[in-house]
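Subject: for your reference before the review

Hello V.,

The reviewers asked for a structural picture of the protein, and I figured it would be easier to keep everything in one thread rather than splitting it across files. Below is the amino acid sequence we used in the manuscript, unchanged from the supplementary table.
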Amino acid sequence: MNELININYDSDRPTVLGRELHEKLRIKTVYPNWFNRMCEYGFEDGKDYMTVSKNVIRADGTKMPQMQAEHQLTVDMAKQICMIQRTDIGRQFREYFIAVEEQWNSPDAIMQRALQIANARVEKLRGENKQLQADNAALTVDKQIMQPKADYFDQIVDRNLLTNFRDTAKQLGIKPRTFTSWLLEHKYLFRDKHGKLNPYEAKNNGLFEIKEFVNEKTGFASTQTMVTPKGRETFRLLCEGL
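And here is what came back from the structure prediction:
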């Protein structure tokens, strides 16, 4: 898709600069008058657009004393404005904004944003959990211990943050069998020839971790797939309503 206008993805919704849209649509009315007239169609500041002020730079590089109002318009507002213009260029930009919205709302784009949110939340939780574990452990660990405390606390945190599928389902408020069936159906897991659950490598991306367990009495060794904090937060977002 050829980019007709710069799309800003820094906020929770894609936006375009009002002044740039005004220029691209080849509007002859000066921008402030045109934008005020567009707002008469019911567009609201803070909902459909956001007003920002910036300095105007002269050709010689100096700043003008007055500030200039700029507006970041949601793509939906920009699309409606293009329809109002009733021109060929307006129809062209309207179709472009429809394509931008379809791409933004595609399953892959939604999944990518969900994972980004999950990663940010997990990193925050990991930092908070590490601090809590460190504070609690420091009350009982001998101050003279020679092992680096940072490594010791990291081991505690990593071990306590992993959960099995049953406990994960309980934390998410989902029946364990329903949760497991959902993971199998959506190709996050598969059963090997022994019936054990294993993650697909292509979809793992830090959602699962395989741990080895050894029975010291019998010598029996096996592995178990565990859910990581990133996995729990990701599945919490994806499994709402199950």
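For the response letter, the relevant points are probably these. The chain has ten helices and seven strands. The chain has a mean pLDDT of 84.

Happy to draft the paragraph if you're swamped.

O.
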